[in-house]
Design brief:
Blueprint: H1 6-13, H2 20-35, H3 41-68, H4 90-115, H5 117-132, H6 146-153, H7 156-167, H8 172-177, H9 179-202, H10 208-212, H11 214-237, H12 250-262, H13 269-291
């Protein structure tokens, strides 16, 4: 069997199963901009590719810095990390995350030209936090602040920011609606931290699952999934009754919550992609529900 190419390695290291976390808030923000009659295709596309580039850059940075700090070892129970597994050198992974963030900057240039200093503030803070999530002397993820980072940047900031670059106005509704994808994205991280809690202890990575234990992490997952769907439903109903489509997500959400309570270790790996699929389903149903009023 031939060795994987660099492209294949980097694709795997981008953690494609988690990428719905970057896409979902942009779709939600765009749907709200369309309702306001201010859809801008180029701004939407730049927001999509910029957000995905930041997420991929963050994932590459995590791969690099977790290996550097000893969080990734041969005892890792999650999907393999490229740097720790020796598939790429640390220098190559460092260049990869710098390149990904550079791509985000390229797409961000148009958004800055359109939206001004608020876009600069959002973009710079997102990139800096993406690096500091596992990099620097006091990484956010090692202090138990990763959940806050994901909730804020993959939620209200991304949704309201996407809405802003198209409408050039700030929408409180978009910020509140952003809690829905932010909460489910936090659910993806919670599964990751629940699975890795034993090896994270040895690396002094004090995630919430390490600080408060497995039961806390399972309760957290339950809360963010239920609250995420509830937020999507309530904020959607403020626009029109089509938001009731979000209720189609309930059976899948119930199944995932049940699984997280009876599963542990490597068996949690499929839950990452499954929670990402729930996020996509919630985004699709809520978007269709929101836009129903435009076709009547």
């Amino acid at each position: 069997m031939s060795a994987p190419s660099l492209g294949q390695i980097l694709f795997e290291a981008a953690r494609p199963r988690t990428l719905p976390a970057g896409l979902a808030p942009v779709v939600t923000g765009t749907a709200l901009a369309m309702i306001d009659g201010a859809f801008q295709l180029l701004a939407c596309l730049c927001a999509v590719f910029g957000a995905l580039a930041i997420q991929v850059g963050t994932n590459y940075a995590n791969d690099y810095f977790d290996n550097e700090k000893g969080a990734d070892t041969v005892d890792r129970v999650g999907p393999r990390r490229a740097t720790q597994a020796g598939l790429v050198t640390p220098a190559t992974m460092r260049r990869a995350f710098v390149a990904a963030f550079a791509v985000a900057v390229v797409f961000g240039c148009y958004l800055v030209a359109r939206g001004g200093w608020p876009v600069i503030a959002i973009g710079v803070s997102a990139v800096v936090c993406g690096v500091l999530y596992t990099g620097g002397p006091r990484p956010l993820g090692y202090l138990g602040l990763g959940d806050v980072f994901v909730l804020v940047f993959f939620g209200p900031v991304a949704v309201a920011g996407t809405h802003y670059v198209q409408t050039l106005t700030f929408s409180p509704l978009a910020a509140v609606a952003g809690l829905a994808p932010g909460l489910l994205s936090t659910g993806i991280l919670t599964v990751n931290n629940l699975r890795d809690r034993h090896t994270d202890v040895g690396a002094n990575k004090r995630t919430l699952a390490v600080r408060f234990g497995a039961t806390f992490a399972r309760v957290e997952y339950t809360v963010v999934v239920v609250a995420g769907l509830a937020t999507a439903l309530v904020t959607g109903l403020l626009v029109n009754r089509g938001a009731l489509l979000v209720l189609l997500c309930v059976p899948m959400a119930f199944g995932l919550v049940r699984r997280v309570w009876i599963t542990d270790g490597p068996s949690l790996n499929p839950m990452l992609g499954a929670t990402g699929k729930l996020l996509l389903l919630m985004t699709a149903t809520s978007t269709v529900g929101l836009l129903q009023g435009l076709v009547h």
